[in-house]
Design goal:
Layout: H1 2-26, H2 32-47, H3 58-138, H4 144-147, H5 155-167, H6 178-187, H7 191-198, E1 205-213, E2 216-224, E3 231-237, H8 247-255, E4 261-268, E5 276-277, H9 282-288, E6 296-297, H10 298-306, E7 310-314, H11 315-327, H12 333-347
Parallel strand pairs: 3-4, 4-7, 5-6
Antiparallel strand pairs: 1-2, 2-3
Helix pairs in contact: 1-2, 1-3, 6-11, 11-12
Length: 349
């Protein structure tokens, strides 16, 4: 058992020494001792069965070579350790030179980038200075309708009262029929119709907002009681609100109680049509019971469109155009500024 263990240890040492010796030979070390190690490499091959084994007793061979292995290992490790020390020192010198070079390159880049960013920052400051100067004179961001919270989309607080005042020929804007006449130009292609609705006698003209009637509350109602050209214009103002059951149908029934020509304007952000349904449909039947949002039957809607009684207008196209057409003829700078701000608000709806 002891002899077997010695032989196993010997084989492990031989494999280890072969590895070290091969590495040492490949490194190109030349010395007198090198030949001995090469001979010893051949000797280890013999021990492993490669070549003719020496005529020596196994036990004495193992013990003798074990001592020689130890001496050789110490010698090799010493040389490798010295070589590693030299290599480590060389690496240290290399990295030191690299760090010094890297620092100089980084310093150059920082200086160069600083100059570039300095020029960029200087240009940015110049642009900002110009912008601030322009903003000081024009203050594009100052809009009374945007500053006052929650009025941008409120029909009854913002849009209906303002439109009511602008379309009023006796409004506080003091521009008389300016806005009203431009509304007529958007409503009619025929000059005859424009002339009919434009020929207004001041004493017979009336406009009201949020007009309560048996048929519902009308957002804007314009009436002209003249015997020569009576007419009535009803504006249903829809920003984001849904249609109410038979709303337009009820408003048309109200218009039928008036004399003269009749116009029912359905005003929305983009000029969409109201919610309709066939008279025999369940949706329309529900609307007659006050359920749902069908505003008018398909049949009545198509009839009123053909007769040019219902007009679909939009804020983004029609009201914006009315304000733009009116702006060039506004005499009051105060009114002109309010109209500009309101027109800018409309673009953001």
């Amino acid at each position: 058992m002891f002899f077997t263990a010695i032989l196993q240890l010997e084989k492990q040492l031989i494999i280890y020494i072969k590895t070290i010796t091969s590495a040492w030979i490949s490194a190109g070390l030349q010395s007198a001792r090198m030949k001995q190690k090469i001979n010893f490499l051949q000797f280890t091959n013999n021990l492993l069965g490669q070549g003719n084994p020496p005529k020596t007793k196994p036990y004495s061979l193992a013990v003798t070579n074990h001592i020689y292995f130890r001496i050789l290992i110490n010698s090799l490790m010493k040389e490798i350790t010295e070589k590693q020390k030299l290599l480590i020192e060389e690496h240290k010198r290399f990295f030191k030179r690299f760090q010094e070079k890297y620092k100089s390159v980084e310093k150059f880049k920082i200086i160069n980038d600083k100059q570039r960013f300095s020029h960029l920052l200087s240009g940015t400051k110049t642009i900002k200075s110009i912008y601030d100067n322009i903003s000081k004179h024009f203050a594009y961001g100052f809009n009374i309708f945007k500053i006052l919270r929650n009025i941008k989309t409120k029909e009854e607080i913002t849009h209906t009262p303002l439109l009511n005042n602008l379309l009023n020929i006796n409004g506080s804007h003091k521009q008389k029929k300016l806005f009203y006449d431009n509304l007529l130009k958007r409503l009619f292609d025929c000059d005859k119709n424009i002339a009919y609705f434009s020929d207004i006698q001041k004493d017979f003209f009336n406009i009201s907002a949020e007009k309560s009637t048996f048929y519902g509350r009308l957002d804007i109602l314009i009436e002209h009681y003249s015997k020569t050209n009576p007419f009535v214009i009803c504006i249903e103002n829809k920003i984001y609100a849904n249609d109410q059951p038979l709303q337009l149908e009820r408003y048309y029934n109200f218009l039928k109680t008036k004399s003269g020509q009749k116009i029912l304007i359905y005003l929305t952000i983009n000029g969409k049509k109201p919610t309709t349904a066939p008279e025999k449909s369940q949706d329309y039947i529900n609307a007659k019971k006050g359920i749902g949002n069908v505003s008018i039957s398909d049949e009545l809607y198509n009839d009123l469109i053909d007769r040019k009684i219902i007009k679909l207008l939009s804020y983004k196209n029609d009201i914006a155009k009315i304000l733009e057409l009116s702006r060039k003829d506004i005499k009051s700078e105060n009114v002109k500024e309010i109209v500009n701000q309101y027109n800018n608000l409309i673009k953001t709806l």
